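User: Second chain of the day. Same drill as before.
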Amino acid sequence: MPPDMELDIEEIIKKLSVVQEGDLQLYTYSPDEFSDGGSMLTKSMPVFYNPIQELNRSITLIAYKAYQEEHMTNHPDVPLKILDSMAASGIRSLRLTLFLADPHEIFANDLNPLALSLIQKNMELNSITKHIATSNQDCNLLMSEWGASHRFSHIIDLDPFGTPNYFIPNAVRTISNGGLLGVTATDTPVLFGVRPSACLRKYNVTALRSSFCKEVGLRILLHYIAKQAHPWMRYIEPVMALSFDHYVRVFVRIKKGKEGITHNLENFGYILWCPQCDWRDSVHLNILDASSRCPLCDSKVKFGGPLWIGKLHDSDFVLRCTTIAENSTQQTIPSIKRIIKTLSYLPHENQLPLGYYNIHKLCDKYQISVSSMVKIENAIKAEGFDYSRTHIEPHAIKSNIDIPTLSRILHALAKE
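Assistant: Same format as last time:
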């Protein structure tokens, strides 16, 4: 680094705050100085760091460690290689290197040269002297060069500000066969159907603003990743798909093979939804085979797609993540309680039909009082249906129950 740049970063460091996240201390700009007047940060922060995303980073640590355990079993002599494509302050890379087992190699890349200087200072602050290499490149260019030269990474992390759509094509070709891709999307108004024209433009999907729109958003993103993988003779296996607060986070294995692509296509389809009575269903790719009228109330149905209509999680992977989480401390994983609770829902919700029911919104629509979730669960099971809470919304459930029966149960409980 040139002497004048060294002087600049030293002067900048004096103006920064030191925050603690997990086991790591971090030089960073104060988020309060770069908010939009509320809790949302803007792009004006010279090196981006969002403390609210601690949950995202913490569950990523657990997911990547779960993958590392698989990798070490299958390839014990091969160090795990991770590309943190948009590293910013380096918080994810630095926490990862403290959390993962040896051997591993993390490549922290960012287009902003100030970010690279800050990463070096944060490494010094935490006495981290190995495992992390840095690069100052456009991440799309970097991944394209790696893919063209067959330099593959076992894990690639994409965590942009906004949509990840234009980073995914290069990521799926640069990841190793069987590698893990972690993707964050914060453009939730697009994915959740609030901005349908933008969804069509960015993801080539007809959006559906439904009562279970957060799950629809996950399925749109998974479909997009799969579609970008197929031209490279690759396919996806979702291992965990999560919707938290104002963003979604998905983890998918990327593998090679024609049969896998065919299986992906079998998991593409459309979601049908009736805004009048909340009936929902899914169909495979030929939307013309579906009726435009609701089978229950004869109202006109809306549809969204094409999108992913298959499983969102791999139960074995989730179980491995759960074991890691239960053996972690709150000092290392600050949001550990919420993560363990989230992971506990995933295996059961994975077995139930697409979509969820928001009980509070349904009761508000029916203009009835809300009963306790325990009573609702017992009543649903007494009718012979399955039931699960979902991580996506606190007052929502997943079930194979039909909406007329659920409506009858909610009305009956409201009269008690």
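The chain has two domains: 51-317, 357-415.

User: Great, on to the next one.
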